[in-house]
Amino acid sequence: MKATRLFYARNLLHTRTQCRGNSILSQEPSGPKMKTQIPGPKSKQFINDLEKTQNALSTIFVLDVDKSIGNYAVDIDGNVILDIYEQIASLALGYNHPAIQRVFQDSKNLSQLVNRPALGVHPTPQFIKQIDHTLLPIAPKGLEHVQPMMCGSCSNENAFKAIFMWYANKLRNGKAFTDEEMKSSMLNKPPGSPKLSLMSFEGAFHGRTFGALSCTHSKPIHKLDIPSFDWPIAPFPRYKYPLKENERENNKEDDRCLARLFYQYKSKQSPVAGVIVEPIQSEGGDYHGSPTFFQKLQKITKQNGAALLFDEVQTGLGATGKFWAYEHFNLPEAPDVVTFSKKFQTGGYFSKAEFQPKQPYRIFNTWMGEPSKLLVLDAVLKTVKAENLIESTRKTGDILLKGLEDISAKYSKLILNVRGRGTFCAFDMPDASVRDKFIGQMRNAGIQMGGCGDVSVRFRPALIFADRHAHIVLDKMNEVAKKF
Question: Are 68 and 466 in contact (CB under 8 A)?
Answer without folding.
Answer: no
